[in-house]
Structures are given as structure tokens and as C-alpha cells.
Amino acid sequence: MQACSVGSCLLAALSLLLLCLALSTDYWLVAYGAKDTFHSGLWQQCTVGGVCVSPAQVNGYIQATRAFLILAALAAAVCILSLLASIMSCFQSPVSLNLVASLSAFAAAGCTLVSMAVFSAESWHRNLDGQIQLAFEWSFYLGWAALPLLGLCGIFVLVTQNRWAKR
After folding, report:
1. Scanning 20, 21, 44, 129, which has the fewest C-beta atoms within 10 Å of its C-beta?
2. Beta 29-32 vs 45-46: how paired, if at all?
């Protein structure tokens, strides 16, 4: 039982780490041109010389992606705190902390899914120049990698909750 709780906590912590890395890094999209390569993230765009600038005008889909990823990270943090409190039994609550952790893990997974789907859908056909190849990069994939981990975390917490309830 304890192993499932600890495993859930580790999954939530890894998911939070992946979400924070995805949010803060600049390799969501890379444009490979004939002479130069450019990359961009949710907060800034970078050129070949390593010069990064924040765009003056931010597209709506970037703002939506940012907002939902921040909400996902906050929900993952709530999941971790709830799991730690339930594992250590240091906090008595009228509501099951495992239930709070499971719901927040599923909420984080839902927010992650929405943000990644919005970014994917809007970026898929962004390239209008035939001489430039646009590709998703590792920061983008970190966001997608957090999704199944959050789902597994929520499932593991539910399994733990059901086993405790049967006792």
C-alpha cells in the first residue's frame, strides 16, 4: 500500500518537473532554413546567434497553452502536497487526501491535454514558406510526456484509496 503511495508521489513529482521544464525552455518549435535555424518556446524566440527576445505580440493559442500548463503545474503541486500529507499522516482532514490527490492529478492531466492539443493544432500548419522546415522539439515533447505520468499517478492514488477503503 505504501509503495503505491510513494510511487504516486514520485510520478507526480516527475510530472511536475517535466511540466516546469516544458514551460521554461525555448525548444517547442524549431525552424530549419537554408542558412539559419531558429527556435522558439512559450515565452521567447531565439535566433542563430543565441539572441532571444520576447515577442511584442503573443498569439492567443500561446497564451492558452501557457495558462493551461501553469494550471497543470499548480494542480500537480497540489497532488504532491496531498500525497505527502497522506503518506506522513501529519494532517487530519475531513476529506480524504488521497481523493484530493487523485482529483488534482486528473485535473493536471486534463489541463496538460488541453494545452498540448491547442499548441499542436495551431502550430501544425504554421509554416507558410516552402524553404523552411518547421519541427516540434524536445520542450514540446516534455509536455506530452507529463500527460500519461499524471494519468498513472491519478490511477495509482485511486487504487490506494480503494484498498484503504476496503480495510
Report:
1. 129
2. unpaired
pLDDT at 49: 74
CA distance 97 to 5: 11
Domains (ranges, CATH) in the chain? Answer: 2-26+58-128+141-166 (1.20.120)
List the 37-40 sheet strands across, edge first.
52-53, 45-46, 37-40, 29-32, 133-136
Here the contacts of 90-94 (C-beta below 8 Å, separation 24 or greater) are: none
Residue 126 has pLDDT above 70, yes or no: no
**C-alpha cell belonging to residue 22:** 516544458
Summarize pLDDT for 1-36 with one digit per residue, the tens.
Answer: 567 778 888 999 999 999 999 999 988 988 887 777
- Alpha helices by DSSP H, listed for the chain, are 2-24, 60-88, 97-123, 138-166
Query: Angle at the Cα of 114 (from 145 to 117), degrees rounded to 5?
Result: 70
